[in-house]
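To: structure subgroup
Subject: Chain for Friday's discussion

All,

I'm putting the inputs and outputs inline so they're searchable in the archive.
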Amino acid sequence: MSHDLPPLNALRAFEVAARLQSVSQAAEQLHVTHGAVSRQIRLLEEDLELTLFVKDGRGLKLTDAGLRLREASGEAFERLRTVCAELKQQNADAPFVLGCPGSLLARWFIPRLDRLNRELPELRLHLSASEGELDPRRAGLDATLWFAEPPWPADMQVFELAAERIGPVISPRYARFAELHSAGPAALLGEPLLHTASRPQAWPAWAASNGLDAGTLKLGQGFEHLYFLLEAAAAGLGVAIAPQQLVADDLAAGRLVAPWGFVETSAKLALWVPARTLDKRPQQLAAWLQAALSPPQSEPVAN
């Protein structure tokens, strides 16, 4: 004997019609036609090989089988409604956990966190920093914000927020600042350049985009993480290279200068969200991030 349920649409139509004692009212509640509800009830009767309604004057009356099914289906759908409401409330009350590289978190996100909390108080954002390779599928993360290159995986919903633009930055405190500030990009070929192990391709990519021979680059002090690299540059230890978004506040404050502008790479700063999620908060966060990332007109333009 088959243990399959009858068609759920048919059960739903029957449950509403039986509860309201009216096919017309059921059709109105379900936002379908009277005929659609009648067809679903007939389909259910055929599947069960039972009569659920009989005519009673100008109306309908439930049979014994119909009464029994109304009780069972009513309890089942009421339980489903209750659980779904509880899940929605639980989802709304839970914090939204965002994974983010530590450098992006420290240099861009935290300075804007108060503004985000004021403008999206219902988000209840919880930040999870990582200095290694991020895994957007890691358990416990609702979304991940990071720089990555397309194509995007099918199991993730990816909100592209801004193109990555990288460029050299230098502090006015650097000993050779005055000389380099007025020179072209080629002046950096003989300079011991600050670099990071997490982005070894950054300087060669920048050189190639400026028509320079990457093989003539001279790398100086190295750092494990981008955050330390940029702190070293701000302290006047040399010329560093970084995404524009991560030095925007330093440029605005005059701690760093970008005399050679920024060039666009193939990477995007994007918000990654599991495709299966029904949470509406990622769309809210993505819209807020996109607005916050829109650069002021005064920012340096690419060469």
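Points worth raising on Friday:
The domain at 165-266 is CATH 3.40.190.10 (D-Maltodextrin-Binding Protein; domain 2).
The two ends are 74 Å apart (CA to CA).

D.
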